[in-house]
Amino acid sequence: MKMLFSSDDIRKIGLVRSALDDAAIAYDFRNETIPYPGAIFHPEVWIVEDSDFARACELRDAVTKLREVPEAAWTCASCGEQLEGQFSSCWKCGANRNVDT
């Protein structure tokens, strides 16, 4: 058994677990809850079969890198509002983001 991933970001843990579930790779999930106040334990995903570890690493890298790429800020072509990159439409006027900007 080998540890594949540990993070305090439960969203990333969920992405990794979902990818492993989809690939039918057996894993063990540890440190799901904090055992006592003040202790810091990050959830861990461990791969059960060593033969699955290389494939699991590929899946982990693919799903965690998807979330790490920051999108560039953009300006709404309709109203000129400055928006952060993660938004696909303007909060001010509702116009959709132009994919070319």
Q: What's the short story on this structure?
A:
This protein is an alpha+beta fold and 101 residues long. It contains two helices and five strands, in the order E-H-E-E-H-E-E. Helix content is 29%, strand content 17%.
Rg of Cα set: 19 Å
Q: Major sheet, described briefly?
A: 3 strands, antiparallel
Number of strands: 5
Question: How many domains make up the 3D coordinates?
Answer: 2
- The CATH fourth-level homologous superfamily of the largest domain: UreE, C-terminal domain
How does this structure look, described?
The chain is α+β, with helices and mostly antiparallel strands. It contains two helices and five strands, in the order βαββαββ. The strands form two sheets. The protein has a three-stranded antiparallel β-sheet, covered by helices on one side. A two-stranded antiparallel sheet has the order 4-5. Helix 1 crosses helix 2. It starts with a strand and ends in an 18-residue tail after the last strand. The model has no long low-confidence stretch (mean pLDDT 84).
List its salient traits.
single chain, 101 residues, alpha+beta, Alpha-Beta Plaits, 2 domains, three-stranded antiparallel beta sheet, two-stranded antiparallel ribbon, 2 helices, 29% helix, elongated
